[in-house]
Specification:
Strand content: 5-15%
Number of strands: 3
Strand order of the largest sheet: 2-1-3
Oligomer: single chain
Distance between the termini: 43 Å
Order of helices and strands: HHHEHHEHE
Shape: globular
Number of helices: 6
Length: 126
């Protein structure tokens, strides 16, 4: 089997839905006995700067502000975006406003927002 370049792998990941990416990440973590959250926390640490420049935000919180009329679909999306069980996901949706993802990359936050809004929810990125 020929090895894929980083660009080829990234193009494959770009085509995946948030749910497919989450399933891949879970499988990757299980197979290699790693947690992807640790490198994200290190990457999110503030880098030294000149203090006067405008800070570019590199991590976002996805906040469900309102579940909307299709609560079941929203709960399914929340479960797909997180590792929560049905009860916990339902509690998050019922208790809106709720943090769904914390410290997500801009791309992941945008995809999560898009998926939740497609299910009928109102979402805010902070």
């Amino acid at each position: 089997m020929a090895k894929m370049t980083t660009e080829e792998l990234l193009s494959v990941f770009e085509e995946m839905s948030v749910l497919e990416l989450k399933e891949f990440l879970d499988s990757f973590e299980e197979k290699f006995d790693v947690t992807a959250a640790a490198p994200v926390a290190v990457a999110a640490a503030p880098a030294g700067g000149d203090g006067g420049s405008e800070e570019v935000k590199d991590s976002f919180d996805v906040v469900l502000t309102e579940a909307g009329g299709q609560k079941i679909q929203v709960i399914k999306e929340v479960r797909g975006l997180t590792s929560l069980g049905l009860k916990e996901a339902k509690e998050l949706v019922d208790g809106a406003p709720s943090d769904i993802l914390k410290g997500a990359s801009k791309e992941d936050a945008d995809k999560a927002k898009e998926a939740l809004e497609a299910a009928g929810a109102t979402v805010e990125l902070k």
